[in-house]
Amino acid sequence: MADNSSDNFKEFHSYMGMLQNLDVGLVVLDREYRIQLWNNFMESHSGLHPYEVREKNLFETFPEINEEWFRHKAECVFQLNTRAFTTWEQRPYLFKFKNYRPITGSAEFMYQNITIIPLDSSVGVVERIGIIVYDVTDVAVNRIELKAVNDELKRLSRTDRLTGLYNRGYWQECAEREFKRAQRSGSPISLLMFDIDHFKRVNDEFGHPAGDAAIKNTADQLVMNMRETDIAGRYGGEEYTMLLVDTSAENAKVFADRLREHIASSTVHYQDASFQYTVSMGIAELNDDIKNVDEWIDAADHALYESKEGGRNTVSIFKKS
Amino acid sequence: MTQTPKVSITEDQRDCYQEISNVAMGQAADLLARLLDVKVILPIPVVNLIEVNELRMALSGIENSETVSGVCQGFIGNGISGEALLIFNDTSFNDISDLLKYGGAADKSLELELLMDVANILIGACLRGIGEQLDVGFSQGHPVVLGQHVNLNDLVAANNYRWTKTLAIEINYKIEGYNINCDLLLLFAEDAIEVLNRKVNYLLED
């Protein structure tokens, strides 16, 4: 009998030893959010000894905890007698602890996943809850870095290297989307297409790098003048396209003329050479006759051709012939 | 390795799974109603033995074209392992700021809060309900966010699934008076089906 109870005591003691040394945070709270249990992990990372926090209110002891948020989660556990999980994606941490690897770790603090479990529910009433704090810093940092890399890849795959505008492929995707959206909403939208006049001469006279500088200058002028909602792309060599959302052909022409003048008055400096150039532009507002994006581009291209015929450095609007 | 018995379920077993899900789902719906203070429309659970690559089809409650947000959570107990998937139709989130007691407009982080709250309740309660009836205590892993505002196909992209067959229980929850629609999918691994069938057979014998 005596042996048995001493065995039980040993067993209990080793259980406690395991819990104390378990490398996850264990906290028990009573109904008033007073701390009842505080294991070794919590002590080490918070620097607070169990006797310092025992019977203390959680939110007063750790003001960094968003009380409203945590109460909401914890009350679910108290009232519904069910577990609650929170992830670092919701909030990076519950307790603001330093990164476990202060030297080689890149995160400043410890990302945490939290499990809240109902305790003492033998009579059907949850009188205490247990909080389990997991250190998930490595997982979180990897996930965040992976996302950053993927976002960068996505950006690169959409962007034209020289000008920083959208490349043709992605611009065309945008055009398909905006085409469908405009068909649904019925709001006006115009497509502007333009290219550099006598671009071959620029190349022949000043060399291809100077031609590149003109292409870049045109894109810079475009970006400087466009609105945030406009979608601009480099369509081909010295050809540019742009979608003007919620804009009629007449309003698009106001924008286009301003851009055209800006470009005509700008000077490109490349090494010792300086030169000026002009652009010709065509605008097509979407209408019911245009059945798809290709037809829309064709219409704008048609107007652009008209500008070329009409002596260049001008803007034309596509009209049904 | 000489024989790999094909997993299957009989009609009686399917009815039994349906009944078990019904009870569990009702308990879960009750908790959800208490959490959100709303009336939850009780659905009829759909039980199917499917190929994992047919997962997409099992999500019948979710419209094809919409973007979705979802979490998954693994569970295991007595040799029965599986995963719970909770998937929200993103249009649901328009109605969510009304329901949430956090206040403020529904942005991506608030949506995640709701997603997690609902996942905690529904998955926890359903597993408990099923576990009680089958006399199994399930351990739950930590939930993982599958994605927010993504294409459904991307969310359940069938890459590297080791199981070919899965027992899928689909429960489509709707909330009365709100345009809120979420699908809870309990997926049991292929090797769990045999154990489940044995347990269910006990119940059928009574």
From TrEMBL, chain A:
For the GGDEF domain, which residue ranges apply? 187-320
MF terms in GO: diguanylate cyclase activity
Classify the source by domain of life: Bacteria
Q: Which GO terms describe its biological process?
A: cell adhesion involved in single-species biofilm formation; negative regulation of bacterial-type flagellum-dependent cell motility
Record's catalysed reaction(s): 2 GTP = 3',3'-c-di-GMP + 2 diphosphate
Q: Enzyme group, top EC level? A: transferase
Q: Cite the Gene3D superfamilies for this sequence.
A: 3.30.70.270, PAS domain
Q: Recorded E.C. number(s)?
A: 2.7.7.65
Q: Which cofactor does the UniProt annotation name?
A: Mg(2+)
Sorted alphabetically, the Gene Ontology cellular component annotations on this record are:
plasma membrane
Protein name per UniProt: diguanylate cyclase
> What species is given as this protein's source?
Catenovulum agarivorans DS-2
From TrEMBL, chain B:
Report the superkingdom from the record. Answer: Bacteria
InterPro entries attached here? CheC-like_sf, FliN/MopA/SpaO
List this protein's GO terms for biological process. chemotaxis
Protein's UniProt keywords contain Isomerase = no
The protein depicted here goes by the name Response regulator
What the entry lists under PANTHER family is as follows: FLAGELLAR MOTOR SWITCH PROTEIN FLIN, PTHR43484
Q: What keywords are annotated for this sequence in UniProt?
A: Chemotaxis
Xref: SUPFAM superfamilies: CheC-like (SSF103039)
